[in-house]
């Protein structure tokens, strides 16, 4: 059965569809056109496609709403179902939203979908519209063989917090296992860090630069905070509990990505605003991580000036993990090893939708192509052969379930 499904995989059609899919812009907040195309393509292959609009107001009011960063007025989702011929229910999950192309010029254009020297080019080729097409063609190849029910969840809004998968699981979470083909470097990932975005405002006392001692620079106050943040990052990463995360050079990064301060070069600045991203260790609740960082900032600003109270905006990625000894992990490992000769386990320092499945007790892994460093980068591209490898890995894992 497994070999029959592998033989049925049409790799040329896979790459052709991936190229067409990349050519449809789907920056976070504007994914509908891409989902409509994907629904039509799935239906043309004889699969059950359900394109639906979520109740955005209800999701935003939910106490576990995962946050958002991109503006949107609608939230559309798509499920593609392959009915099963034996017990079991497996989810394949992938996001169709992509980050913006940026301001630097692309050699072939961000929406080219060009295939050149065996690589598919364009925004989303690796992260992760190309892998979504790999999942679609895995379903197509499995149609005529024995398998459990499989549902491909093509979701929006992953890049800014995971609202698409959160909404999809509100509709249907009856899964025995899940696989997400994020770009993992041909490794089986069963642990992911969390990621929280924060913002702080530091106040100072303004005065003329010539009399700066009469004032108090908000920048000088921030320098103390910045040093404290660096020490906190070092402390969090000094004794990493999860064995897969321990193997990473920096499992839980803390970075300040934006600073805004001052109004005039000859004026002591009375305000500085900083924004950043906090890595959350596996097993640590987001609220605990928030409280710890606030204590770090409070301790750094041990003066009589106003306190800096951090605010937490945008996407909120909790951490997530699946037991490396779980049978589903072993099944996916065996499937990947049959394709590549090896299937190392790994943890990753970035947030993903894995944690939304594991929070519901659904064993979940991520396995995908190389090229995570190209995601969100200019000239994003992916190996066409590796897209086929991931499709074949999904076929094997499902057939063996």
How would you describe what is shown here?
It holds the Pfam family Peptidase_M20. This is M20/M25/M40 family metallo-hydrolase. Its cofactor is Zn(2+). The protein has 401 residues and is α/β, with parallel strands linked by helices. It has two domains: 271 residues, Zn peptidases (Aminopeptidase); 124 residues, Alpha-Beta Plaits, CATH 3.30.70.360. It contains twelve helices and 16 strands. A six-stranded mixed sheet has the order 1-2-6-3-7-15, with helices on both faces. A hairpin with a 2-residue loop joins strand 4 and strand 5. The protein is elongated and about 80 Å long. 48% of the residues are buried.
Q: Assign the CATH class of the largest domain.
A: Alpha Beta
Number of strands: 16
Report the sheet-strand fraction.
15-25%
Counted up, domains total 2
Strand-and-helix sequence, N→C?
Answer: HHHEHEEEEHEHEEEHHEEHEEHEHEEH
Shape: elongated
Largest sheet: 6 strands, mixed
CATH architecture of the largest domain: 3-Layer(aba) Sandwich
Helix-strand makeup class: alpha/beta
* Biggest sheet strand line-up: 1-2-6-3-7-15
Uncertain spans: none
Instruction: Please work out how many helical segments DSSP would assign.
Output: 12
Instruction: Give helix % range.
Output: 25-40%
Helix and strand topology:
Layout: H1 2-8, H2 11-22, H3 32-44, E1 48-53, H4 56-61, E2 76-82, E3 89-95, E4 115-116, E5 119-121, H5 129-141, E6 149-155, H6 163-171, E7 177-180, E8 188-192, E9 194-203, H7 218-236, H8 243-246, E10 254-261, E11 271-280, H9 286-300, E12 311-317, E13 320-321, H10 327-340, E14 345-348, H11 354-358, E15 364-366, E16 381-383, H12 384-399
Helix pairs in contact: 2-5, 5-12, 7-9, 10-12
């Amino acid at each position: 059965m497994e070999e029959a499904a592998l033989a049925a995989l049409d790799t040329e059609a896979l790459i052709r569809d991936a190229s067409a899919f990349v050519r449809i812009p789907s920056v976070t907040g504007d994914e509908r056109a891409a989902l409509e195309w994907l629904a039509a393509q799935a239906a043309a292959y004889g699969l059950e496609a359900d394109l639906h609009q979520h109740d955005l107001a209800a999701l935003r009011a939910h106490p576990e709403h995962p946050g958002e960063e991109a503006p949107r007025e609608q939230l559309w989702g798509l499920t593609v179902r392959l009915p099963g011929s034996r017990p079991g229910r497996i989810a394949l999950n992938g996001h169709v939203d992509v980050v913006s192309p940026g301001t630097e010029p692309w050699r072939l254009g961000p929406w080219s979908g060009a295939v050149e020297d065996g690589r598919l080019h364009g925004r989303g080729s690796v992260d992760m519209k190309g892998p979504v097409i790999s999942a679609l063609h895995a379903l197509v190849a499995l149609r005529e063989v024995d398998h459990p029910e499989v549902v491909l969840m093509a979701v929006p809004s992953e890049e800014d917090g995971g609202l698409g998968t959160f909404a999809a699981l509100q509709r249907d979470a009856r899964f025995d296992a899940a696989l997400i083909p994020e770009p993992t470097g041909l490794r089986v990932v069963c642990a992911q860090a969390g990621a929280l975005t924060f913002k702080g405002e530091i106040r100072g006392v303004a005065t003329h630069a010539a009399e700066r001692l009469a004032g108090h620079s908000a920048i000088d106050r921030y320098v103390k905070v910045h040093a404290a943040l660096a020490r906190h990052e070092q402390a969090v990463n000094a004794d990493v509990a999860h064995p897969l995360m321990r193997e990473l050079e920096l499992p839980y990064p803390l970075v300040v990505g934006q600073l805004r301060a001052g109004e005039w070069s000859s004026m002591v600045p009375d305000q500085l605003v900083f924004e950043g991203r906090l890595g959350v260790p596996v097993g640590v609740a987001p609220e605990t991580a928030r409280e710890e960082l606030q204590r770090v900032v409070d301790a750094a600003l041990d003066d009589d000036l106003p306190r800096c109270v951090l605010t937490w905006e945008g996407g909120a990625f909790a951490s997530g993990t699946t037991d490396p000894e779980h049978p589903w992990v072993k099944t996916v490992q065996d499937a990947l090893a049959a394709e590549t000769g090896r299937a190392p386990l790994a943890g990753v320092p970035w947030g993903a939708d894995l944690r939304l499945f594991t929070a519901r007790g659904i064993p979940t892994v991520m396995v995908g192509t190389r090229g995570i460093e190209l995601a969100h980068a200019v000239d994003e591209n992916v190996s066409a052969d590796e897209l086929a490898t991931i499709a074949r890995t999904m076929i094997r894992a499902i057939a063996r379930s």
